[in-house]
């Protein structure tokens, strides 16, 4: 019963986020601040992880393609498919839940504990719109970060293939271009947009409705990480079935 | 003026406010006192519209809060200023930005006009060189003054203060009391202060409401509180030895 009530409360929160908008001049500066904090601030870790994940995918694929009848270009093909379909959108999203999600929960939770949210409400400000809406809009840029992660992941795979002598450069690149289906990129971006919305709203929910003090802010961040990850993993399955399934 | 009629509020099985009826006068400092857990903060949050009432009504200069649309409630809230117990300043903003925030949000004034008004109210609360400082860089007393400046910057009709003296030394607390009383009279505001600071009760309690276990046990002025025979009030107000002696002296002087 508690879970159903929480889900209902989450949707009511989302509805409230889009009501009574804050003055555009103020909202614009909040959005720019959140873009800097949530997206640009995460680029370093996204690029770093994407590069090495791409490399590891290449090495593991190469080590499993032992038959001499299989062309080396398959390593490039498998790397591209793994990175574009799964590693860049889903893996990067889980990293973002850890980095951005806990930041969102703790910052909103601290505002709740220190009565800053009450102060906004007393002034007549729609605190949910003021706090959560800029985060949702900023996270709309998340697909750009994922696009970079795709590129860097494939680059990491190529470097691993060439440096580790798993496949010649030409063969790897031939594999990258093999049977390319543009819809796979669209699928990845659709997933990313849904995940971006979840990353902005679920941690906000946990921060906004938290009760207690400093210790509870930490607990709320952990709970938010767990639930956001769970929702992303479930939605990943559902979207994959809907968009790519038979 | 705020008229409160038969206000009830519960949280789960806990009945916190049990039918409070009273009236807060304009241009006066109205104090809500009572022990911890007596329902003071819940009552204040009901007055601010942060909690929905279960029963009863609150009427702000003729407007019954529960009968207002969400837009009208928002407009009414812009006529309220609040000083929170912990100041509740936005810690990512400077003092100037904190005070400017409500005006920036709800008025179409130019940056120059906003700055002039901020200077004016900061000067009013005796804060002159703190514009560019962050809340974490100033003392608790200064934070309270910034909170007062932010609360009065929109010329509110109603000013609410939740324990404005908590965490302050006695001298700063007296300055804070005097400041609130001056502002109340100067702007003709209905001020409601939630406190258990007995100095405030004696100094600025033009009207005092005493809450006990969610009921309004007593109401009167700071002069009347000396004379009252209500045991709950005397036990609470004169719980310290100092105040017991003050009361004894008062009674002896009267006799």
Considering the chains and any ligands shown, give keywords for the structure.
heterodimer, A: 246 residues, mainly alpha, 10 helices, 83% helix, elongated, B: 255 residues, alpha/beta, Rossmann fold, six-stranded mixed β-sheet, four-stranded antiparallel β-sheet, 24% strand, globular
Helix content of chain A: over 70%
Which spans of chain A of ≥5 residues are poorly predicted at pLDDT below 50?
Answer: none
Strand order of the largest sheet of chain B: 6-7-8-3-9-10
Radius of gyration of chain B: 19 Å
Q: Could you spell the SSE succession of chain A in H and E letters? A: HHHHHHHHHH
Strand fraction band of chain B? 15-25%
Structural class of chain B: alpha/beta
Helix residue percentage of chain B: 40-55%
Cα(first) to Cα(last) distance of chain B is 37 Å
How far apart are the first and last residues' alpha carbons of chain A, in Å? Answer: 34 Å
Note the main sheet of chain A: none
Write the H/E string of chain B, N to C. Answer: EEEHEEHEHHHEHEHEEHHH
- CATH topology label of one domain in chain B: Rossmann fold
Write out the CATH superfamily name of one domain in chain B.
P-loop containing nucleotide triphosphate hydrolases
Describe what you observe in this structure:
The complex is a heterodimer of chains A (246) and B (255). Chain A has 246 residues and is mainly alpha-helical. Chain A contains ten helices and no strands. Chain A has one domain (25-237). Helices cover 83% and strands 0% of the residues of chain A. In chain A, helix 2 packs across helix 6 and helix 7 packs antiparallel against helix 8. The two termini of chain A are 34 Å apart. In chain B, helix 6 packs parallel to helix 7. The longest helix of chain B has 18 residues, at 170-187. Chain B is globular, with a radius of gyration of 19 Å. Chain B has helices spanning 40-47, 70-77, 95-106, 111-124, 140-152, 170-187, 198-204, 224-227, 231-237, 241-254; strands at residues 2-11, 14-24, 29-34, 55-60, 63-64, 80-83, 158-162, 190-194, 207-212, 215-220. In chain B, the strands form two sheets. Chain B has a six-stranded mixed β-sheet with strand order 6-7-8-3-9-10. Classes of the chains: A mainly alpha (246), B alpha/beta (255). At the A-B interface, helix 5 of A face helix 2 and helix 3 of B.
